């Protein structure tokens, strides 16, 4: 009886086709799982059988395929943020918003007053290896640390400082304390900024607090106006006083110089008088008359014994009065 080999040949052909197909799938799987790309603002953390191997920079990279190497991409240059007491829609950071925002923002100040504090922290991933493997949930851990730090800083100040003049100091101190704790817990993060947003008293006392703030602002306004008037009047009065003082000093110097000149001139005349008294008297008389007579106007001098002078002169009324 003849043996039919055709079914066996068909089986061999199908098996050969299946082997080639499996080999092709394996090659595709090896190639596809051995290549990966790290984006420009990220770094890749390579794990081999779950153990850290290296950190790679952006670009096209290769690794052992088929799950031998695994890569975690971490955005190290992107600035992330977390919001406390409120939430912005469309957040991409999973830990940016908390479901307990009302509890986060309710705080007690150092003078035992209640305050509603909303704030933001901005941070970057500085060490991806620590961020991924040192703490189980670094994002929520950071939220807990930030809330603890803010409650500590707010609890050291009065409600007036928290709501008005102490905001910048609170931000600076909270940033320092938060970065210190982040370094202590080795989260691998760098805190860029802590920013206070809305800081208000509780809703029940907000109207009264607003009235107090308004009164304080009015007081500051009046103080500023008074200081402006003071700065305008006082310098002008000081200038006028200085001007009068300088004028008085100039007049005093002038009078002293004139007196000294008169003394010098008198001493000079006295010296000449002592040398020749009669001559000096005559000279002084003549000089004095030379100064006085021109100031008297037109005068006619006659002998006191003369008579019948009027018919000889055509005198004007002024001259007549002067002659008389």
TrEMBL record:
GO molecular function: peptidase activity
Domain of life: Bacteria
Principal subcellular localisation of the protein: membrane
Pfam families: Band_7
Domain Band: 33-213
Membrane topology per record: Single-pass membrane protein
Gene3D superfamilies in the cross-refs: Band 7 domain (3.30.479.30)
InterPro entries xrefs: Band7/mec-2_domain, Band_7, Band_7/SPFH_dom_sf, HflK
Subcellular location: Membrane
Gene Ontology biological process terms from the UniProt entry: proteolysis
Segments passing through the bilayer: 18-38
Keywords of the record: Hydrolase, Membrane, Protease, Transmembrane, Transmembrane helix
A GO term from the CC aspect: membrane
Subunit structure: HflC and HflK may interact to form a multimeric complex.
Family, as annotated: Belongs to the band 7/mec-2 family. HflK subfamily.
Record function comment: HflC and HflK could encode or regulate a protease.
Identification of the protein by name: Protein HflK
């Amino acid at each position: 009886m003849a043996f039919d080999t055709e079914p066996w040949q068909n089986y061999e052909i199908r098996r050969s086709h299946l082997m080639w197909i499996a080999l092709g799938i394996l090659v595709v799987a090896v190639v596809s799982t051995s290549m990966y790309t790290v984006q420009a603002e990220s770094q890749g953390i390579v794990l081999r059988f779950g153990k850290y191997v290296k950190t790679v920079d952006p670009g096209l990279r290769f690794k052992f395929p088929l799950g031998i190497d695994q890569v975690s991409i971490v955005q190290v240059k992107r600035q992330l943020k977390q919001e406390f007491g409120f939430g912005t829609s469309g957040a991409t950071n999973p830990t940016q918003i908390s479901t307990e925002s009302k509890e986060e923002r309710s705080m007690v100040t150092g003078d035992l007053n209640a305050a509603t504090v909303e704030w933001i922290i901005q941070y970057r991933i500085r060490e991806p290896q620590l961020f991924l493997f040192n703490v189980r949930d670094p994002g929520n851990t950071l939220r807990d640390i930030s809330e603890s730090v803010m409650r500590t800083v707010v609890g050291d100040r009065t409600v007036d400082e928290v709501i008005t003049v102490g905001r910048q100091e609170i931000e600076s101190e909270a940033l320092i304390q938060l970065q210190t704790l982040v370094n202590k817990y080795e989260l691998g993060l760098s805190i860029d900024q802590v920013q206070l947003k809305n800081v208000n008293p509780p809703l029940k006392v907000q109207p009264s607090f607003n009235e107090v703030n308004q009164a304080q602002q009015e007081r500051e306004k009046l103080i500023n106006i008074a200081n402006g008037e003071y700065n305008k009047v006082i310098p002008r009065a000081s200038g006028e006083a200085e001007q009068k003082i300088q004028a008085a000093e100039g007049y005093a110097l002038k009078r002293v110089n004139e007196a000294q000149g008169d003394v010098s001139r008198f001493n000079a005349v006295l010296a000449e008088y002592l040398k020749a008294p009669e001559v000096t008297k005559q000279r002084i008389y003549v000089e004095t008359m030379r100064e006085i007579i021109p100031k008297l106007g037109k005068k006619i001098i006659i002998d006191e014994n003369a008579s019948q002078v009027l018919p000889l002169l055509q005198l004007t009324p002024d001259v007549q009065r002067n002659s008389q």
